[in-house]
């Protein structure tokens, strides 16, 4: 069992994985609205979709901090809400899945390898 857990990175002291596309912290509005920051797992989405799906078809600009995303947008089916609608993926009622960051996290990219300077991937 221990070898199985260590293979999953669940054993105490395991180093977190670093992915090329990292995680994106969204906290421009979250804490101001009384919610924890959003941790967006960019690599998890990138493994399943080509860049153009989100950055062309859903309207996300390819620069960290350049997207003004609100819960109203998501609920109305824009940005994340195109897929997170309760049919394709879980809906916005499952707040804690996305709003999982610790208070005080600054918006931006964490982990991974950034290219093109700070705030870009």
Distinctive features:
121 residues, alpha+beta, Cytochrome C3, 3 strands, 24% helix, globular, disordered C terminus
> At the fourth CATH level, what is the homologous superfamily?
Cytochrome C3
**Number of domains in the coordinates?**
1
**CATH first level: which class?**
Alpha Beta
Q: Write down the overall geometry.
A: globular
Name the strands of the widest sheet in spatial order.
2-1-3
Summarize the structure in words.
It is a single chain. With 121 residues, the chain is an alpha+beta fold. It has one domain (13-110): Cytochrome C3 (Alpha-Beta Complex). It has helices spanning 2-7, 42-48, 51-57, 71-75, 95-98, and strands spanning 23-26, 38-40, 108-110. It has a three-stranded antiparallel beta sheet, with no helix packed on it.
Compact summary:
With 121 residues, the protein is α+β, with helices and mostly antiparallel strands.
What topology does this entry show?
Layout: H1 2-7, E1 23-26, E2 38-40, H2 42-48, H3 51-57, H4 71-75, H5 95-98, E3 108-110
Antiparallel strand pairs: 1-2, 1-3
